[in-house]
Amino acid sequence: MQTFSHSQVSNTTYLFNSYAILKSKGDSLHHSDNYLNNINVNKVKQVFKQSKSQNILSQKIEPRFYERNDLLNSIVVLELILSFVLLSLVIVRSIKYLKIYIQSLYYDFIAEKTLSNISVPLKKTARILDFLLLISTSLLTYLFINTLMPVNKIVMLYSLIAAPLIVYFYRGWIWFFHKILGIVTADHNVASMLSFKNNLVFRLVGVFLLPVIFIAIYVRTEIQVYLVYLPFVILLILLLHRYIFFVRMFIKQRISILYFILYLCALELPIILGVIYSYRMF
């Protein structure tokens, strides 16, 4: 039997121990890979999510106050609802008298007939149209300022109140001026017709402007900018129609052009003073 030397036995022992150490490391690495493969990925994601939320909650967050124009929006909505209720009331119950007013705007002989025989239903319809004019003026002011020149809500509220008051006092001036004109000229028929035509234009403004204003307020596209100017175009057409009637009336009565100019200056005196005051202020 062959015998081994001491050096050969030592080498064999060293190789066996090295093999055993490598095998044990390989087994541990294999078990580690199996453990990592068996970990639930959702749990890992959940851990990371929780860590992220905890970091966010640990930060100092300053509260921000959200400004709301509840009062302003409520006023606009109430005005829209009230105006459409009044317009529906006129269309359903007084459409006959509304047609008479519209025809009187374009035909002078119908205007003369209407003025000479104003009934109670015509007067009631006129009162509703007067109130509708004030609401339409407030809504038009809101549309113009909110779209073209945004201001704070306090200034907006003052504007919504001031605009109808200006129209109301201007119409009061028209009534007072024509009363004085009838007394001075001793021609009550001409003064009454001029006053009637003035009031007729203003009373129908609300009827023509209200649908356009409603669409322009709630349309949030590029078209809104153009719709803002459309009510002013309609208003300008009605005012030009009023001036054309004045010219026809003065020519029919054979009144001098000088008196016509004086009449227009006196009639538009509040507007002239308002423009001069605004120019000096701004």
Task: Walk me through this protein's architecture.
The protein has 282 residues and is an all-alpha fold. It has one domain (70-281). The chain has 11 helices and no strands. Helix 4 packs across helix 5, helix 6 (120-148) packs across helix 7 and helix 6 packs across helix 9 (223-252). 12% of the residues are buried. Mean pLDDT is 76; it is low at 29-33 and 39-54.
Summed up, the helix count is 11
Total beta strand runs: 0
User: What is the H-and-E element order?
Assistant: HHHHHHHHHHH
How many structural domains can be distinguished in the coordinates?
A: 1
- What structural class do helix, strand and pairing data support? mainly alpha
Mean pLDDT: 76
Measured by DSSP, the beta-strand proportion falls in: under 5%
Instruction: Note the overall shape.
Output: globular
Helix proportion range: over 70%
Rg, nearest Å: 42 Å
Instruction: Give a quick account of the main beta sheet: strands, pairing sense, barrel closure.
Output: none
Task: Quote the distance from N terminus to C terminus.
Answer: 126 Å
Poorly predicted runs of 5 or more residues: 29-33, 39-54
Feature tags:
282 residues
In summary, what is this structure?
With 282 residues, the chain is mainly alpha-helical. The protein has eleven helices and no strands.
